[in-house]
Amino acid sequence: MITRYSRPEAVAIWSSETKYKIWFEIEAHAATKMAELGVIPTEAAEAIWAKGEHAAWDSDRIDEIERTTKHDVIAFLTHVSETVGEEARFLHQGMTSSDVLDTCFAVQLARSADLLIAGTDRVLAALEARAKEHKYTPTVGRSHGIHAEPVTFGLKLAGYHAEFQRAKRRLITAREEIATCAISGAVGTFANVDPAVEEYVAEKMGLQVEPVSTQVIPRDRHAAFFAALGVVASSIERLAVEIRHLQRTEVLEAEEFFDKGQKGSSAMPHKRNPILTENLTGLARLVRSAVTPAMENVALWHERDISHSSVERGIGPDATIHLDFALNRLAGVMERLLVYPDNMQKNLDKLGGLVHSQRVLLALTQLGQSREDSYAAVQRNAMKVWRGEGNFLDFLKEDPEVIVPDADLEALFDLGYHTKHVDTVFRRVFP
Amino acid sequence: MITRYSRPEAVAIWSSETKYKIWFEIEAHAATKMAELGVIPTEAAEAIWAKGEHAAWDSDRIDEIERTTKHDVIAFLTHVSETVGEEARFLHQGMTSSDVLDTCFAVQLARSADLLIAGTDRVLAALEARAKEHKYTPTVGRSHGIHAEPVTFGLKLAGYHAEFQRAKRRLITAREEIATCAISGAVGTFANVDPAVEEYVAEKMGLQVEPVSTQVIPRDRHAAFFAALGVVASSIERLAVEIRHLQRTEVLEAEEFFDKGQKGSSAMPHKRNPILTENLTGLARLVRSAVTPAMENVALWHERDISHSSVERGIGPDATIHLDFALNRLAGVMERLLVYPDNMQKNLDKLGGLVHSQRVLLALTQLGQSREDSYAAVQRNAMKVWRGEGNFLDFLKEDPEVIVPDADLEALFDLGYHTKHVDTVFRRVFP
Amino acid sequence: MITRYSRPEAVAIWSSETKYKIWFEIEAHAATKMAELGVIPTEAAEAIWAKGEHAAWDSDRIDEIERTTKHDVIAFLTHVSETVGEEARFLHQGMTSSDVLDTCFAVQLARSADLLIAGTDRVLAALEARAKEHKYTPTVGRSHGIHAEPVTFGLKLAGYHAEFQRAKRRLITAREEIATCAISGAVGTFANVDPAVEEYVAEKMGLQVEPVSTQVIPRDRHAAFFAALGVVASSIERLAVEIRHLQRTEVLEAEEFFDKGQKGSSAMPHKRNPILTENLTGLARLVRSAVTPAMENVALWHERDISHSSVERGIGPDATIHLDFALNRLAGVMERLLVYPDNMQKNLDKLGGLVHSQRVLLALTQLGQSREDSYAAVQRNAMKVWRGEGNFLDFLKEDPEVIVPDADLEALFDLGYHTKHVDTVFRRVFP
Amino acid sequence: MITRYSRPEAVAIWSSETKYKIWFEIEAHAATKMAELGVIPTEAAEAIWAKGEHAAWDSDRIDEIERTTKHDVIAFLTHVSETVGEEARFLHQGMTSSDVLDTCFAVQLARSADLLIAGTDRVLAALEARAKEHKYTPTVGRSHGIHAEPVTFGLKLAGYHAEFQRAKRRLITAREEIATCAISGAVGTFANVDPAVEEYVAEKMGLQVEPVSTQVIPRDRHAAFFAALGVVASSIERLAVEIRHLQRTEVLEAEEFFDKGQKGSSAMPHKRNPILTENLTGLARLVRSAVTPAMENVALWHERDISHSSVERGIGPDATIHLDFALNRLAGVMERLLVYPDNMQKNLDKLGGLVHSQRVLLALTQLGQSREDSYAAVQRNAMKVWRGEGNFLDFLKEDPEVIVPDADLEALFDLGYHTKHVDTVFRRVFP
């Protein structure tokens, strides 16, 4: 995890303190239910909560014990017994380490997903505000990086809004995928622990019951989770790349907010660089890099091997923390984005009206000219403009094969024609 | 696409014939609606359907035209006009190539998803039948490849069933992700085509309307689709690896069906190899390899660039056809899997009762011995068995610190203890 | 493999005909050596060559036999005996299928590497020619997509040349990695085949001897091979993205050659799109997608499992054929690239001299002003230009804190200053 | 970076202290040369070294400055001036931040590569010792997880030794790929810095000169570097998977060393799990996950964008530190591996001599029987053994179509036959 690309609330989910607190809660809730089932004494369960609920578990001490036991959960339980006393021996009855580890991981991923969903909401809010602000700001639509036809800047942003609505849905589904609890014992048979314990702990921890666990919660869930993060990261990349394009010197239709005191370049004082969105482009790559190892983690051997663990120690915090940061950085970029409608208009005018070529083509075919002849006529005149020889409308008027009357031709160059359905699209996105 | 790993029904979706048939339908449905809107003559739309509906489009001829135009949709339209006649000039009015290409791709992916869902159903049926057949067939559960505690073979298969239920849900969601229609013109503004056309074509083609398309359907949808395929492939890999393990010479608890006349090895006539599940392991890698390029495809420039196209020409057919094949091969493996309960029992007995070590541990702690002492006592005797010095139960009886009475010790070695909740789990999976 | 992105010479390497021809050669060379060693009759080896050397092996017949034997090499040998007669029984003595399959795969990959190296040479030749042509064509250097300082277009291309020199070296190393021969029998012990046979076949097939094979040539070699292809593909992507940027409407410093009769868009006749380099961007993603599965193929179980095989049936031809196509397409793009020096100059002038800001900064510090004050002075004036308020040189002259005399300031705006080491760099690249 | 999977010497390379020390050296060496060239005063360069060489740069202070400047190199230079005084203004003349950052990154990667090469040497030493120890320890070779023919354990290890020799060569090449120095100014033109400075700094820092840098060292170098790490990680995975297989309960031919006091499972005291090699399997996935983002980093825009930076802040330390740890962990596993020759022999005998089936096949064909008939005869008897009906040798003796005399048949079951070329292979690996 790269501190520079992290927010404290996301980091906190993955701290030792949080982890041990969750471990204690899982063990103690299980004890409560076991006491109810008569498996352990009620007083033991009560004592565990009384002495443990507000205890501050000592990571260093646990690490020290682990150096002997080489087993993290045993080390934790040993440490708990140092605080809670001998009732601690009733903890973990019939459970296996993974019952604790996997359920804790589920809690951490679910909490991370909540942050990611909140981050997406912030992006959505920024996109909606800016989309409505620029609903009718004309700008050129580009395919292949080449001017195509007019759109509005608001329409562009509405498209991103729709994409981040999907991102949110994917994150909600991803959260459901991993928010499950397994307390099923060494190989998932409940031989030594009643299924009622699992149900109780699940409810207390805000999770669903895992229908069949082996020793572990099946890793196809986690693969689906990280895959969803990879898709969301890719959507971030798309918007980041858009901003970077708009900020290019020759385009300059929008710019990341530039702070007073900020230096764009140590060598070139004139520079204002889209470094935030470039950074987001890189973060997208980093988040995506979790997807393949998460998928490779699925095929654990038999009832489990532990090869997934080291992977998840990396990608668990890294992918969630960096994606959380990226969503919030993106929201900030969009909230404060400097938008230059004048430059948009200037660029739109750059090709001397060529962006209206399709309308002319359609008009010709509707006058009965064949598609092939119409295309040739329009292309012939367009290429002259392309070579810088003059203005598109003028050329069309002069061309005898362009049989549209001059007044009608002029009407074809109306920008409003292209924005007449902006409202239709907006209603789809912002119902 | 590797022919050897394909089924004809999956391949057919991606043939030129299918593609051109879908293209025609999209264009012709659009024409019908345009006629209704008064944009083109009703007779034109009718003539198009009359002459084109059952036409056999000629791929070679279209390729020939494309060599001149360097544009596939224009080549197709030119060819259509050769069959349909001059009314064909009313086709594609105000539309852009991507309207046709992307909507067609959505239809092909949706149909592929239908096959994948059907393949998953076949896997589920095989797993259910075999799980119920072996609901109480005892076998050893293994963590880290090491014997842990008893499970049943049916329970193992029930776990895979639950995983493939999730696979099915993911495929259904994936299908929804990509089953959208865009007929919105050059940059998605509907400048030259009424949104009503899009709605009509969407309905006719069995798709949803894409809320905001640029020139293209946004590629985050496709990234999510292929990511889902990668997760499903990873689940296939897990089951394949399980079978491969069970077929190992030393384990031999199950075996792929072996045909008469089949040769396991050109050099070693005695071999019976798990080649189908090894093949599935490889196919899983191949299907997964589509995930990263699909995610890299998301960040197209502005209203689109065409970098995604070559990628999709590869992964579109390849990932869907290979996954379809893999699901059906896996179903066949499970339907005909040879299961050897005797060998399962033999392996279960191999460690002389060590698999019951946890019960002994629990019994000791419940008699009031500390967890640490209990663990040490059990481990001490277990290590003797591990070193091949004798039988676990005998050692326990002899050990004075193992304070469980002999008769109770024997009862702890009861297999039924481990299967008592099999039915609980089965009810979760097969309600 | 996507036919549209393939060249016949690359495809031919992977045809059934080529494969069976190589299989025959491996088997027949082995027979020759075995005869020399007295393992089989000399007449048998001679008869095999006499009847088989120019035989046309029948793929369909081999497929037919394989449907019974379910084993490709056995099917091939059976078919060979139909042509060669009973002496064919002396073929394959003590060998295992993988001896043939893996050695053949090595030959195919080595031949593919030869094509890739030739393709790289073609790219290098194009880059060298264009670099020398535009050695002193001034253009703006851009960091973060923002104008930085002047460079020359030739210098840019020289950088790509250096990168493709590295690509070539990587391909040569990759070829060495996989060009090995294994004829070592069922588990690599040479139990039934003399190591001398391996040495002989290796030499005849132009390969090195594999020092230790198990049943297979170790797959780390192939992982390294496909990884190298992925790196080369990424270099292609970088140059492709550069061209795409240069062709953007607002930049237009270079353009892909545009054929007569070519149509840029079915809807917009004015479009000239960088479709070849966009295509190369996509192909780079496709080629890279082979890297991860190739790495996942390394950890075969024990002396081999066959999970790698399906992967390699895909990525073997796909990655090599598509990369071969991409290299040649890239070479074509560079050979015919339309370069617009006037537009380069126009863009260079766009910022009113801001690209010289660093020189002014340096001049100020050299006059003894602190770095911080100098930076502030230059940035202050630069920002005015950025806001479109006027000309950089004028502002500097007016600013009292810019203590450089006016004449010296003008000299700082000399373009030649930036090109004085172009020759130095060229000597490094084209020695 | 996961602390648990790191060694201090690898971590130290990536500390702030190390980074700032390298930055200072690069800047100060550049100053020395600039002084020699007369660009800055000699006394300034001398003062910089005198005051800065042993200075302890204060990370917190630099971070504090960066919060204002939003630029790390400027923050560093500002901090240097706080220690060195006003001569510090002569630092960085004509240089750009990337000159420092990229050259520093090259130094860090090169030092990391040195550790990786040393780690590989340790693995090689362990493999050589154990291979020679078990040169003639018989064990069964397995293909598809199924017994094939006898090999020796030493031969298996020799194969891994050959693979790690290749790993070492790949790391050496990877080191060469990235050990380059760029001091070429804002866009690589040396406009404000003499190429002689670059040559001088390169030599002092132990690097090669980068032939053409833009603003940055081209990222195809780094892609090749991380790809090599991914291949090495995959080789680690292969050996790790081998050990995991050998430690399976049913196989138990080798075992990871198991410490006193170690607990295999919190629930099952009898467990001895191959957790180190499972961990290595997971670490291999983690290291490999750096490959794709490194390749995606190549296509920076024009003379650079900064999207690669966040990626490299992650994968730079993570991939090198984890791979360094994995190599050393693997070496430890191999050094202390418990090997069980008795179990190897027991497994070898398990199939009642079936592992000799190929020799019988060859003997039959050499007596003139057709390959097809010979195969059928051997397979027929092998399948009886497979079904547990008896002993292979006995069946063969009884079968009238097995025309080999009984005494000769017995000789065919000689283990020495399979080990006769072990020495040949060893000479290839350990010359």
What name goes with the CATH superfamily of the largest domain in chain A? Fumarase/aspartase (Central domain)
What is the residue-averaged pLDDT of chain A? 94
**Could you name the ranges of chain A where pLDDT drops below 50 across 5 or more consecutive residues?**
none
User: Largest interface, with Cβ-Cβ < 8 Å?
Assistant: C-D, 96 and 94 residues
Order of helices and strands of chain A: HHHHHHEEHEHEHEHHHEHHHHHHH
CATH architecture term of the largest domain in chain A: Up-down Bundle
Can you count the helices of chain A? 19
What is the CATH level 1 assignment of the largest domain in chain A?
Mainly Alpha
The overall strand count of chain A is 6
Structural class by secondary-structure content of chain A: mainly alpha
Strand order of the largest sheet of chain A: 1-2
The main pleated sheet of chain A reads as: 2 strands, antiparallel
From the N-terminal CA to the C-terminal CA of chain A, the straight-line distance is 39 Å
* Overall geometry of chain A: elongated
Proportion of beta-strand residues of chain A: under 5%
Structural domains of chain A: how many: 3
CATH topology of the largest domain in chain A: Fumarase C, Chain A, domain 2
Family (chains A, B, C, D): Belongs to the lyase 1 family. Adenylosuccinate lyase subfamily.
Keywords (chains A, B, C, D): Lyase, Purine biosynthesis
GO cellular component, one term (chains A, B, C, D): cytosol
Pfam family, one (chains A, B, C, D): Lyase_1
